[in-house]
Design goal:
By secondary structure, the chain is mainly alpha-helical. 81% of the residues lie in helices and 2% in strands.
């Protein structure tokens, strides 16, 4: 409906503005301060990054409500990966926030999202620019595995801090005699991260094939 389409356009516009601000901020800071800007990336853009990622949870609700035709499972994996790495791993460990891997991860996320939300906004208005369609559904196949490697590296870097500080590790008192050692949870999640990458890349290839075919048809019709 027109109302739902307008709502989705506004959502995409808000995400585009947020990610564009982050991406532009990172580029300008790097050009101005060089490598010195990398260490405090999280402190300068972390708040906006967290707001954008929290807002992306709505995309799962969009699919469940039927107003977005994307597949639920791959999108759920992509969103939860970012939420876990950003809020659980990076946000909880101040020592990790200054690592260069955080800057690399944010750069990859925002590059993909600026392109994706630009494509989505145009698609809501019925505009399908073939080069943008190709870029949106091709670049993600190349950059998504790199972002997974960056996420895995961030988790590995954080492990010593979780081990020494005991963050999120839980030991229940008697009579339960049960404990959760969080570094083990993160190591298991590393396996889940790479297994999930297989399903997401498979979905990215199928989306690319479907949308490029649709884009070619619309171009011929115009």
């Amino acid at each position: 409906s027109f109302t739902m389409n307008t709502y989705l356009f506004i959502y995409d516009l808000m995400q585009f503005c947020g990610h564009s601000w982050i991406f532009t901020n990172m580029i300008v800071r790097f050009m101005s301060f060089g490598k010195d800007s990398l260490a405090d990336t999280f402190y300068s853009i972390g708040l906006v990054m967290r707001l954008c990622q929290l807002l992306s949870v709505l995309e799962i609700l969009h699919i469940l409500a039927g107003i977005d035709k994307s597949r639920l499972f791959p999108r759920f994996l992509q969103i939860t990966e970012r939420i876990i790495v950003l809020f659980v791993v990076i946000n909880s460990q101040e020592e990790v926030q200054g690592k260069y891997v955080v800057c690399v991860l944010f750069f990859l996320w925002n590059l993909l999202d600026v392109i994706r939300y630009t494509y989505n906004m145009l698609a809501r208005t019925g505009i399908y620019y073939l080069p943008l369609t190709w870029l949106n559904f091709s670049l993600c196949i190349l950059l998504y595995p790199l972002s997974v490697l960056a996420k895995a590296f961030a988790i590995c870097v954080s492990l010593p801090y979780f081990e020494s500080l005991g963050t999120y590790s839980i030991k229940l008192p008697f009579p339960f005699a049960f404990s959760i050692y969080f570094p083990y949870v993160l190591k298991v999640y590393l396996l889940v991260l790479f297994v999930g990458m297989y399903f997401i890349i498979q979905n990215l290839f199928s989306e690319r094939k479907a949308h490029l075919a649709t884009g070619n048809v619309k171009k011929k019709q115009s």
